[in-house]
Amino acid sequence: MSYDLRRSLLLGLKHLSPGHVFVAPALLILFVFFLAPVAGAFVMSFTDFDIYALADLKNLSFIGFDNYISLLGSPLFWKAFGNTAYFALVGTPLSIAVSLGLAMALNTPGVGLKPVFRTVLFGPYVATLVAAAIIWRYMVDFQYGWVNRGLGVVGVPPIDWLGDPHWSMPAIILFAVWKNFGYNMLILLAALQKIPDELYESARVDGAGPWSRFLHVTLPGVSPVLWMVALLTVAGYFQLFAEPYVMTQGGPAQSTFSLLYYMYQDGFKYWNLGHASATAFILFAILIGISFIRNRSQETFA
Amino acid sequence: MIWCMKIGRMKMPSVPTLIAGTVLVFATVWAAFPLFWMTSMSFMPEAEANAFPARLWPVNPTLDNYAELFAYQHMGRYVLNSLFVACLATALSLAFNVTAGYAFAKLQFKGREKLFQALLAALVIPGQLTMLPLFFLLKNLHLLNTYVGVVVPFMSSLFGIFLVRQYALSLPDEMLQAARVDGASEWQVFRRIVLPNLRPIMVTLGVFTFLAAWNDFLWPLIVLSDDGFYTLPLAIAALSQEHLQDQGLMMAGATVTIAPVLILFILLQRHYVRGLLSGSVKG
Question: Which ranges in A155-196 belong to alpha helices (H)?
Answer without folding.
Answer: 168-193
